[in-house]
Fold:
Amino acid sequence: AQAAPKANEVVIGKDPRLIVHNSKTGVMETPLDILREYEVTPKQFLYIRNNQVLEGGKTNEPIPLEGWPVEIVGMVLRPAHFDASVLKDLPQHEVKMVLQCSGNGRSFFAKYGAKAKGTQWGHGGMGQTVWKGPKLVDVLAHFKVEPHEAAQFLTVNGRDLPPKTGGRPDFEHSLPWSNDPETDWIGRDVMENAILAIEMNGEPIPAVHGGPVRLIVPGYYGTMNVKWVGQIRFEARESYNYNQVFRYRVPLYPVEPGQYDKKKQGFENSRPNWHQKVKAVVFAPLDGEQVKAGTVKFWGVAWNDGVQPIEQVLVSKDQGKTWVSAKITAPDSPYAWYKWEIYLPMSAGEHEVWVRAIDRWGRAQPLDGVVDWNPSGYEWNGADKIKVKVS
Ligand code: MSS
Structure:
């Protein structure tokens, strides 16, 4: 058998220590012992998820803005067709945020007895990133686009084309675009915060991460941050695209593991992977790690959709009977990860430590993440449970 290709052989500029899930399109995750070393995840370590690849896109090198066409069409007064180089002349906005695949943590469904189909991500299908570019609303104003007030959704299409024979559908996503900010806060955040990013971590966006132009919507799952933006459409409905209807959604009602017919999924009985759920991840000790008896420092990160602050990260040594509150440090951006830490006395033996975050709306992680089972295993946010061997 041939040795599986290393991350640096799959995508130019990636670190060989990344865990490759799919070498064809380039899907790889960051081991936690690397992820935890950086406040902003450097490009050589950032995870990748591609449904299909932009031609020549398997590299951390950038693609020039000049010569990259973008169009804004649909229910608008004036459609706009422009060269992406215009974007650097408009007022720039920068945002630090967690970029996370909605499938991140999918392997935990299997770990707790309810496997879900798809890439078996650990916790490393995420990273902390900084994006910069003009706000979408400023681009619209610049070109006097004026979306119609009945346009309730924004659909963004990437210029990655499905392989001719691969049978994969084109990639696009719809996001809520609310024209009624008084009553509908979902959609208002897209209006206020969406940017057409042209930089990542202070440099032109690496091709593999969606350069030269990427839609960035802080607080939303990775999939909604469409790479290689070619077309933006304003419409009254969500797109019927395969990736919007049959993928990247979860049922609106509880389903028993294995008991859900994905073919019957539609707009009425499911919702898209939009807002990220509240989540805490243990960065140290790592699951299964050996530590010395005495006082042990546990630490990690926590984040949510940025709509309300994280208020507590709770830690339990006794399967949730009692909890203690970790010290949390808020980031300078509501969409970035919080750091949490706690020192716990640990006696010799095997222990399981549970961690869960709670935000100001009281949104918390379920102790048993399997309660939110869904056929594609999206949006895992069960309390993080790690085993430590104390000696
Ligand atoms: N975009 C495009 N155009 N294509 C594809 O495929 N994918 C998704 C996003 N965007 C895609 C896009 C996903 S799905 C994700 S996660 C993200 O992206 C990732 O990113 P990076 O940069 O990391 O690679 Mo799941 O939710």
